[in-house]
Design brief:
The chain has five helices and ten strands, in the order E-E-E-H-E-H-E-H-E-H-E-E-E-H-E. The chain is α+β, with helices and mostly antiparallel strands and about 180 residues long. It is globular and about 45 Å long.
């Protein structure tokens, strides 16, 4: 597993729009239709990455904790499925079921959306405010596979709590780390 840091898209960046297939129901969905009333969390993940597997239960819990507070969660997989077939749409749907994702799990076949977000790794997190302006681009927490630190989501949760409480999100943000996106 190649350790890759996120690129840290500049805060204030407007969320790039998209229309992608949701593998959970095979319907095309747009950012505008999926955005939350308080904020929107866009997560670049995949099925096979050990960094994502390590945090899957926390991703599921984040959605359960924050969707009712107006922060919608969206997961996108942009990996090259020709060389990484375990990240294909059918297996994405099964992964969503297995991990109790209550959020859409979208397939970025062309990888254009990952490029628009300057996503670099899985997981890669982008939290936007109600105006779809980036307020957080960073890690879930300090836990990594094998480092013994519990997965809590504390860094991302602090940013989401600030949005919910109409407070300023701290600009002290650490990059996410994971496997590199598998480019074509």
């Amino acid at each position: 597993m190649a350790r890759t840091e996120s690129n840290m898209l500049p805060l204030g960046t407007k969320a790039p729009d998209f229309n992608l297939i949701d593998t959970t129901d095979n319907k095309t969905k747009s950012l505008d239709a999926l955005k939350g009333t308080t904020g929107t969390l866009v997560m670049f993940i995949c099925n096979h990455c050990p960094f994502v597997v390590h945090v899957n239960s926390q991703l599921s819990q984040l959605a359960k904790d924050y969707i009712s507070k107006g922060i919608n969660c969206i997961a996108i997989s942009s990996n090259d499925v020709d060389n990484y077939p375990q990240d294909g749409p059918e297996l994405m749907k099964q992964n969503a079921i297995d991990n109790d994702y209550i959020f859409p799990y979208l397939y970025d076949q062309t990888q254009d959306v990952a490029k628009a977000y300057d996503a670099a790794c899985t997981p890669d997190f982008f939290l936007f405010n109600t105006d779809l302006e980036l307020v957080y681009a960073g890690q879930l927490d300090d836990s990594r596979p094998g480092n013994g630190i519990p997965v809590t989501g504390k860094d991302l949760r602090a940013a989401m709590d600030a949005l919910v409480n109409n407070e300023t999100v701290s600009t002290n943000q650490k990059p996410s780390m994971g496997c590199n996106i598998k480019w074509k």
